[in-house]
Design goal:
alpha/beta, Aspartate Aminotransferase, domain 2, Aspartate Aminotransferase, domain 1, 3 domains, 7-stranded mixed beta sheet, about 10% strand
């Protein structure tokens, strides 16, 4: 059969495996790499959020392919109009600049394009993922049979965890609910992530199957109310199967009392899942890991290195105390893999086909950028990042408390700070709008972006002090900027209330 006729394609459309077009491809890759480096090294000169949104460049599918110069010009336009989480003033969400090795790992993963569906299609990376996640499971103290699987986000990790918990605790065959005469329910803090409700919906339980446990005055799941709620569900004829604790809530960053929740879950023979998507990074610090006391009792655990470990998106994981449950509760062999491979038992060093034990079949080899970053920074490097960003949050808490108009949701337990302006000179009904104006003004005047989440029915300002280049100077600008803006708001309010106005 003759070779395919590629004359209608650009010579740089692919990198020829025999190297015949290397000289044509090299300039394009070099320019793209230079563009990426220029952007990364100048991100602090851009606004945290784009100030204007240009129109999209042309049609998505041109009849004739564009020249490389046009494509690079489009890239520059797209970069300028994107979000810039590398900016030190971007402190509004759980996003940061990625490690350098994340960029290297993503590039090489794309070049190799291995499929994490099976060992046959990713022989080295499947083994690397299996062994690396086993080691991380040991770091969390989950025991000798523990390990895990990478997924594209914490929502998928929570979904698979609840699916395994449901099947295991309720003894379901193939996940069918028809054999149950009662509604399965689970329990989670009222401040838990919304992905739990989506998971319950997708699992056929209904989002109302997530029974909210009220939080105490410190924002933690109230362990004193949890047993009562479990027993009330049993009395109604429901079938409790899982309790979820959160290590680092999304809005306030608080950590539920893990050990106390684990004890209650075990008392009622329920699965204990910990959503440590964010706060799990504390485990890398000997100084701060006591804040996660009890996490070692988890049956399953969600952790997102794409957050506090600075791995480029996506990179999240589900860890299980007993990895055999991936197979027992979830595995469906794919028919186009070799049977010996599909049926073989996993060992410490020999993984199963990872696409058979997870929600995703085809997956990007995210393990490479994670493994490279762990190798590059080491446990000591990550401990320093975690500890210093927590110190920065405490510094911000101390400085901002000097402003009497501010109210704080809770003292920081991670590197998140949640607060709002509630000045006594303004009616309470107008406080939400005031905080929205403060958010906009800080972005415009100080190039500091805070998010504006809804918490306890009101709008709060949230700072996530994650970026390693966010420093004391940013905290000082935030404090003085808020003080100035609040004074301007007070003067405008007083002027509007003056007689004759």
């Amino acid at each position: 059969m003759p070779m395919l006729d590629l004359h209608d394609l650009p010579i740089s459309a692919f990198i020829a495996p025999d190297g015949s077009n290397r000289q044509a491809v090299a300039p394009l890759l070099e320019q793209a790499l230079q563009l990426a480096l220029d952007y990364a090294a100048q991100a602090s000169e851009l606004p945290p959020l784009p100030t204007a949104m240009p129109g999209l460049p042309g049609t998505a599918l041109p009849e004739q392919g564009l020249a490389e110069e046009q494509l690079l010009a489009h890239l520059r336009s797209l970069i300028s109009a994107s979000l810039h989480p590398a900016h030190p003033g971007y402190i509004g969400h759980m996003d940061s600049l990625p490690t350098t090795m994340s960029l290297v790992g993503d590039l090489l993963s794309a070049v190799l394009n291995n499929n994490m569906l099976s060992v046959e299609m990713s022989p080295l990376f499947s083994r690397l993922e299996w062994t690396t996640l086993r080691e991380l499971a040991q770091l969390f103290g989950l025991g000798p049979r523990a390990g895990g699987l990478l997924l594209s986000g914490g929502s998928l990790a929570n979904l698979e965890a609840l699916a395994i918990a449901r099947n295991q605790i309720l003894g379901l065959s193939g996940g069918a609910l028809t054999s149950l005469g009662a509604r399965p329910v689970l329990f989670a803090s009222a401040a838990a992530h919304t992905s739990l409700h989506k998971a319950a919906m997708l699992l056929g339980l209904g989002s109302q199957a997530v029974i909210p446990v009220p939080v105490d005055e410190s924002g933690h799941l109230d362990v004193h109310q949890l047993p009562t709620l479990i027993e009330q569900a049993q009395a109604r004829g429901d079938r409790p199967f899982c309790v979820v604790a959160t290590a680092g809530t999304t809005v306030a960053g608080v950590i539920d009392p893990l050990a106390a929740i684990a004890a209650i879950a075990h008392r009622y023979d329920l699965w204990f899942h910990v959503d440590a998507a964010y706060g799990g990074a504390l485990i890398f610090s000997e100084q701060l890991r006591p804040r996660l006391a009890g996490i070692e009792q988890a049956d399953s655990l969600t952790f997102n290195p794409q957050k506090w470990l600075y791995i480029s998106k996506t990179c999240a994981m589900l860890l299980l105390r007993d990895t055999s449950l991936f197979t027992q509760a979830f595995r469906i062999p794919v028919p186009y893999m070799r049977q010996s491979e599909a049926q073989g038992e996993a060992t410490d060093d020999t993984p199963p086909n990872l696409g058979e034990i997870g929600l995703q079949g085809t997956r990007h080899s995210d393990i490479l950028k994670l493994w490279l970053s762990l190798q590059h920074l080491g446990r000591r490097g990550y401990a320093r990042l975690v500890e210093q960003t927590c110190q920065l949050a405490m510094l911000a808490y101390t400085r901002l408390r000097t402003l009497p108009a501010l109210r704080f949701a809770h003292p920081p337990e991670t590197n998140l700070l949640c607060f709002r302006a509630e000045p006594d000179w303004l009616p309470a009904a107008a406080h939400d709008e005031l905080n929205a104006r403060l958010q906009s003004a800080l972005l415009e005047q100080e190039r500091i972006f805070l998010s504006l989440p809804l918490y306890e029915g009101r709008r709060w300002l949230r700072a996530v002090l994650l970026n390693p280049y966010t420093d004391e100077q940013v905290i000082e600008r935030l404090t003085t900027g808020l003080a100035r803006l609040l004074e301007q708001e007070r003067q405008q309010h007083d002027s509007s209330q003056a007689p004759g106005r």
